[in-house]
Amino acid sequence: MPAPTLEQPTRESVTTIRSDGSRPFLFPADPRGRFTTARQWSAFGLIAFYFSLPWIKINGYPAVFLDLADRRFHLFGITLAAQDLWLLFFLITGLGFSLFFVTALLGRVWCGWACPQTVFLDHVYRRIERWVDGDAIQRRALHHAPLTGRKVFQRVLKHTLFLLVSAGITHLFLAYFVSLPEVWAMIRSAPAEHWGAFAFMAVATGLLYFNFAWFREQMCIVLCPYGRFQSALIDDHTLVVGYDSRRGEPRGKVGTPDAGACVGCNRCVQTCPTGIDIRHGLQMECIGCTACIDACDDVMTRLGRPRGLIRYDSQAGFAGGETRWVRPRTILYFGLLLAGAAVCGWALTTVKPASFGVTRMTGAPYIVDAGSVRNQFLVRLVNKRARPAVFTVTIAAPAGTHQIGFDRAIEVAALGEVVQPLILQAPRPMYTGPFRFIVRVRDNAQSFQVERAVEFLGPEARLLREEEGK
What we know:
Elements: H1 34-52, E1 57-58, E2 61-62, E3 64-67, E4 72-75, E5 78-81, H2 87-106, H3 109-113, H4 116-133, H5 136-144, H6 149-178, H7 180-188, H8 195-215, H9 217-223, H10 226-229, E6 240-243, H11 245-248, H12 267-271, H13 291-303, E7 310-313, H14 315-318, H15 328-349, E8 354-360, E9 367-368, E10 372-383, E11 389-396, E12 402-404, E13 410-412, E14 417-427, E15 435-443, E16 448-456, H16 461-469
């Protein structure tokens, strides 16, 4: 049975879907050039950064440690409690505005240079595939070859390595939430002792393996929404990877009279990880990986022609105009980015080394007895630091109000919390109705103080007096 061929890429349909609905498996060739080398160094740096964070200690904890069990989140020396998670809104929106601004200027540079999908696929899994199966021609031939002992061996070896790498990535990802020593303890113990973590590891490893071993470019084309809304973020002055049709057309072989610079070698198509033809113009499937640039530059150099037939430029630049970097779109996105950064910076200054919350006990909102009106609360003290701290809880309330609970200083363990009742009594003769009072928490060592206003509930004083007069 002859091997099915990849149909010529067009703009009318997704390249990795044939006319009969089947999916051809891509075998992109391996380009060499300045952009490929730069992307390799960038990818290795990002991978090293990802793998090193759980090992780097700042203030006694990993640089990034999302401790879900104790509801503590350590981010490069800053410790946030669950009460501080509102700050994530500013972090997420800040990242969103940054992506908008970068996309408006540089197109899909994130996808081609920094996205984990691209980084791990191109620089880890495809490296393994090249080492086991050979170059693009050899991989394609092996894919369509009949099943032999050698092919079985190569398939088993490659997919075993894929599974091991996927498991390694997943274990390290788990370390961001439970720490490396805990991951190592889980590995050495039986799965039943940590069945939840074991199930997560199995599922996550399987998903990673499926993604990088088979799904691959379909993640970018089918699932990732970024390629679809990029058209709303870019314009004719955004830097993109494109083909200079003014110089390249009409195509023709070397020596063809009146032919453009493009010789129709299709090297740009062969190296594209999503299988598109960049000569058709900007397309949703293009992730800006620059493989086609290096492939075309190599051909141009061999032919003694200037490089840059495929290059980084804007649509305006390819049309013969000038690229405008400062324009309403970039000004707007940059303004939003600065506003988000300013608000995020202010929000971080509000983060304190300790926090507390006051909640009313369940049941009746207040209790009236023969001598007083009483409210009952629970006070939760949270110490965000990596050392014990001593706190004093006081209240500021109308004269005569009596506090029960927290009559002495409270020691809270490192990254610990204490929950104790606080009862407030207002004598009936001095009670004038509901009022607000202040709960203050002071750190005895650093003279650090936070406070919170709380409502004291009770009947109207008139009704209370009427009841006493009966």
